[in-house]
């Protein structure tokens, strides 16, 4: 024994083969080579939240490598709570984009005006453009007390999933792929879209694909939203407060806390949207220099693959409403027929607005007062008696189905001309629209009912009472309206709104953009999108009117209006003004000089 200096240390064939002596002699011996460290630093520094994507497919092996990196993340109690849902279906992606658009507008409504404008400028089209979506969800069905480390920090499983997302992000960046983490969703709505079981929660939607931008700095920093804080501002020693008794400042809030703020359509083709955006980037002009209009033009050009005609059609539908007999309007029911006759003669506000915008006009008689159809109008008059909302259903189911079919055919025909603008006329239809708006947005009658055309305080109170009666009468049918949107038209709708809902379905099914008008002229978009979610990608909010509920309806659609002129004319006037603006935007896009590659 004394003849030997030391016995060789047995080295385990599994696990950690190092010895305490080796670790003490070289504490940094576990480090990677300097070139690996440099590469890792470069990847971390170069990670970006990508918002624009090429349509080129992501090879399956690269997708697997990114998911594998996520699966190698650390997790509390080695529980591996992450699950990855790979989404390629265009219709699912389009519906997700609709949810995000709605949430974006909802959040913007809570911010200061300046911050809201900046937020609305942020691009979210990656949900449609990126060829792959990966929804990372956290399986929380195991009780926290049963997972090592979660009994005291029950949300550590969520943090584990965030680690998986960061791993995916870095792996994607290192391979030249772009990833964008989108959390502008109502979590319950996203869960419903993906059929997530109770206890499995979404962490967000990861847009994954080849980037169509190569940002040198984080997007929000480039957009002047915020700047990265110095490291010294976020590091403390031993306790929260430093020697001077002051800790780091809290993250900035941009909330507005002022007291006064309280045929089925195809999904929008991602490759076409990318192409339209690329074309806009080539203009001799700053990116998105036309603001909201630029985005609308990109969507319109994407739908038509750059060949959308520089023209369009106003579809103007009119109908009588028995609810007008309950004292909810300042005008006689006969006015509806007068306006529709003037429209057929080309002399109404809507018809003149359409002509001024370069649009044709299709006038639809969906049952205006009188025993005969309006001369020069397409006849779509209901066959059965109509109700007053308060005591009986507005329409018969057979009539609703027929009106939807007629509208589809009209929309398909109008789509061949380019833009399709919606217009309506009907004494009493602001009451109908308020009732429908309450049903689809959850607003109370007090928050939804506006003054309409010339109403006084007494009329407004009668309108609110009628809407309350109608909602109470329909009860569960209102709560379940998404299961059968046509039944909501039976219960609370108007014949002109039913026709225009069909017009939206037909026009979108034919690939045309549809420009909505005021409250009654926007509800067909909500109902059509409920019948066919892909419709939402075809909709343009022409304006925000004076009606109280209109803003909530546009938020439900996830649409930002082009105009806000406090219009109350109806007849599609706002839609025509917006259509004129869109057509000008298209001419600008097509006529401006291009820069060299």
TrEMBL record:
Q: Which InterPro entries match?
A: BluB (IPR012825), Nict_dMeBzImd_PRibTrfase (IPR003200), Nict_dMeBzImd_PRibTrfase_N (IPR023195), Nict_dMeBzImd_PRibTrfase_sf (IPR036087), Nitroreductase (IPR029479), Nitroreductase-like (IPR000415)
Span list, region Disordered = 1-20
This protein's name = Nicotinate-nucleotide--dimethylbenzimidazole phosphoribosyltransferase
Q: Which domain of life is it from?
A: Bacteria
Q: From which source organism is this entry?
A: Knoellia remsis
Q: Which family does it belong to?
A: Belongs to the CobT family.
Upper classification of the source organism reads: Bacteria, Bacillati, Actinomycetota, Actinomycetes, Micrococcales
Taken from the record, one Pfam family name reads DBI_PRT
Q: Which UniProt keywords apply?
A: Cobalamin biosynthesis, Glycosyltransferase, Transferase
SUPFAM superfamilies listed in its UniProt record: FMN-dependent nitroreductase-like, Nicotinate mononucleotide:5,6-dimethylbenzimidazole phosphoribosyltransferase (CobT)
Q: Which reaction does it catalyse?
A: 5,6-dimethylbenzimidazole + nicotinate beta-D-ribonucleotide = alpha-ribazole 5'-phosphate + nicotinate + H(+)
